[in-house]
Amino acid sequence: MKVAVLGAGVVGVATAHALVERGHEVHVYDRRSEVASDTSASTAGLIAPGHSYAWASPSAPTMLVRSLLGASTSIRVRPRADAELARWGVRFLRECTASRARSNTLAKLRLARYSQQMMDELTARENLEYCQTRNGVLYLYREEAELEHAQVNSQLLRDHGQQQDVLGPEEIAAAEPALRHGTATFAGAIHDRTDGTGDPHRFSVGLAEECGRLGVRFHLGTSVMRLETDGAAITSAVTDRGDIRADAFVLAAGAASALVARSVGLRLPVYPAKGYTLTATVKDPERAPVVGGIDEKTLVAWSRFGDELRMSATAEFVGYDRSHSPADYAGIVDAGNELFPGAVDWDTARYRTGLRPMTPDGPPMIGLGRHDNLYFNTGHGHVGWTMAVGSARILADLVDERRPDIDPSPYSPISSRRHPSGRGA
Fold this sequence. Notes:
Layout (H helix, E strand, L loop, with lengths): L1 E5 L3 H12 L3 E6 L15 E2 L12 H9 L6 E3 L5 H12 L3 H29 L10 E5 L2 H16 L4 E4 L1 H7 L12 E5 L3 E2 L2 H15 L2 E4 L3 E6 L4 E6 L2 E3 L3 E4 L5 H6 L8 E12 L9 E4 L4 E6 L2 E10 L12 H10 L4 E15 L6 E4 L5 E5 L5 H16 L26
Parallel strand pairs: 1-2, 1-13, 2-9, 4-17, 5-15, 13-20
Antiparallel strand pairs: 3-8, 5-7, 6-7, 10-11, 11-12, 14-17, 14-18, 15-16, 16-17, 19-20
Helix pairs in contact: 1-7, 1-10, 4-10
């Protein structure tokens, strides 16, 4: 079967690889000139089932109200006339109950754990190198009350297989000696021993090369403008370089998936959350971290990619705006100087924004929608890098009408919970 994958981020590349391994003829389309050079190149790099919590939780509405009132919060919303955001926000608030947060967190955790396993197997099989580590991730808490609250929350993950230890200040310094040089003080940390880090851009480039050897054709620099349908199925995708015809289409274009889907009357519950990322050259290796982590006070996250340090923060709901200014990175730089003073040369920093495709409930959308041949693999949010390979495997199973290794129903694009109007994707 000829399959057109729309999107060449880490999810799209992984999907192409999973499909070509099954014997399909696969073509990948993306407006960028290089694979995984947009949001996939703008993440903190954490491979983190241990941070699979659903953003929609009982505490989220308070944070959103504080943001609307001008407070500095890790999740920010700028007041603006945006009907799509309003619809998405109503659905998000519906998910902010304790029972829904638990269900959504477990759905994310199952997919993240499965995906990490599939990624490890794929990495070994294809001999991929992407600065990967498996020495855990530190989730750091500055206040004792925050640490105690985190321990209560993390029990859910521990009960479902995550290997997490609670560390005191000295144990934190032993796990990550670079923090001894910093001025920040921590009450403690949760160390997820099975989490890790890696560069999704390098991973995608390496996997795309293997895809090419297997026969996948990449059509980069090609913008998909809309889909055409006869009502029951997608007949073609219209691009700035001509029409695409295929037996099946996979929409894996991240936040842009919602824009493409509108052309055939679909309202995907996917909205972009803008994140800010910088990457700087390490100038003192002893002061730079080797273990990935998150400062849970500022929600600044980091990963070490060889001689570079990647740091990221903030989720801002401002539509598809990608603009940024030096002020947007001040908090990240301040955190870097506090945590790892003298570690990097800030003059070398490269600044980026990425639009994370968020669903209101948290789990991504994977599978067939209401058209006979339009599949979705999108909405992975802040853990798209973690979930990419597993999502691709599930999608390939569904295309081939096989039963996936894990239950795909929490990720169904036609779930009535995701589409209260009854009109699924």
